[in-house]
Amino acid sequence: MASESAMNGTFVPQNGYGSIDQSGYTAPSYPSSAPSQSNNSAADIPKDEVGWYFVEQYYTTLSRSPEKVYLFYNKRSQFVSGNETEKVEVCVGQRAINERIKELDFSECKVRVTNVDSQASDDHIVIQVIGEISNKSAPHKKFTQTFVLAAQT
C-alpha cells in the first residue's frame, strides 16, 4: 500500500498497474491463453479495480468539470451532502442531484483520496471513499463518500 496521497484522481499506482493515464482508461491485459468466451461478464473484473477506476473518474470530473458530475447518476439515484450536525434533504433523480451539486458550487476543487474500499453486494458494488477536499482554495476538509454502483446492462 502506498504511503502518499494523490490529488484529483491521479492516484498512487495500485497493485503494480503503474500510473493511470488521465485521457482514458485502458483495461488490464490478460494472458493470451485465457479463454475467450463471449459470456464473460463485468462480475469477472475485481471489485477493487472497478472501485478505483470509478473513484478516479468521479473525482477527476468533480475537479475539472463539476457541471458534469450529475452524469454519474440516473433517475433512481440518491444523493446526500452535508455536515454531521445538519439535517439534510435526500435528492432523488438526476435532475435534483444536478441542482444540489450546482448549489454546492464546486470551483477549483481539489480532492485527495486516502482510502477506497470496494465490496460486492448482490449485483452491486459498494464503494467507500475517505479523503480530503478543498473547494475554492479553502483549507482541506476531511470527507467520506459512499457509492452504490448498480450493474450496467
UniProtKB/TrEMBL annotation:
GO CC, alphabetical: cytosol; ribonucleoprotein complex; Ubp3-Bre5 deubiquitination complex
Residue ranges with Low complexity bias: 27-42
GO molecular function, one term: mRNA binding
Signal peptide interval: none
Domain NTF2: 50-153
Naturally occurring in which organism (per UniProt): Aureobasidium melanogenum (Aureobasidium pullulans var. melanogenum)
Keywords per UniProt: RNA-binding
PANTHER family in the cross-refs: AT27578P, RAS GTPASE-ACTIVATING PROTEIN-BINDING PROTEIN
Polar residues bias (residue ranges): 1-26
Region (Disordered) location: 1-42
Name of the protein this chain belongs to: NTF2-like protein
Gene3D superfamilies recorded: 3.10.450.50
GO terms, biological process: protein deubiquitination; ribophagy
